[in-house]
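From the methods appendix. Each design record in this collection lists the tokenized structure first, followed by the designed amino acid sequence. Records were kept in a plain field format so they could be parsed without special tools. The example shown here is representative of the layout used throughout.

RECORD:
FOLD TOKENS (158 positions):
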């Protein structure tokens, strides 16, 4: 009887020790305003191009940036050339996620006519999301020949 009692007591102690492990979940940090803006823009990846568009049915470059910032209650002008007057210019080497990159893609005009949102800077390479008339919303690199040639400036609005 003593052996049975000792056995049951030992089993109860061992079982209770195993059940007392605390289960902890990895805490996820809340995304920053900049991260939320980038995520908002990235949610439109694959959306077709539509001049003047601001929805998942179709979107142009400034519409993409406008909507992403608007979701965080940051109001920007609706047109890329007017967006280029906001915030402050920063050097290309200082670019970071959330900055805006501006381009002049029309060789016959001196006006800025394209904008993108920097999503990442890796090994000095700037990646930006934008909407093109040929491929819709996608992420490109500033090192791509076409964008490198058309690049005008980087501006920080947040």
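DESIGN:
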């Amino acid at each position: 009887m003593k052996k049975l009692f000792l056995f049951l007591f030992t089993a109860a102690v061992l079982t209770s020790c195993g059940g007392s492990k605390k289960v902890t979940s990895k805490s996820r940090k809340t995304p920053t305003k900049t991260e939320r803006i980038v995520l908002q823009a990235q949610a439109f990846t694959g959306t077709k191009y539509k001049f003047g568009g601001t929805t998942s049915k179709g979107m142009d470059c400034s519409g993409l940036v406008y909507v992403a910032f608007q979701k965080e209650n940051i109001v920007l002008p609706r047109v890329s050339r007017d967006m280029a007057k906001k915030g402050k210019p920063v050097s290309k080497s200082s670019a970071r996620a959330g900055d805006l990159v501006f381009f002049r893609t029309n060789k016959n005009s001196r006006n800025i006519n394209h904008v993108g949102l920097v999503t990442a800077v890796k090994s000095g390479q700037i990646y930006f999301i934008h909407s093109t008339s040929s491929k819709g919303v996608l992420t490109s690199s500033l090192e791509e020949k076409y964008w490198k040639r058309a690049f005008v400036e980087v501006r920080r609005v947040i």
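APPENDIX NOTE: The CA atoms of residues 31 and 39 lie 9 Å apart.
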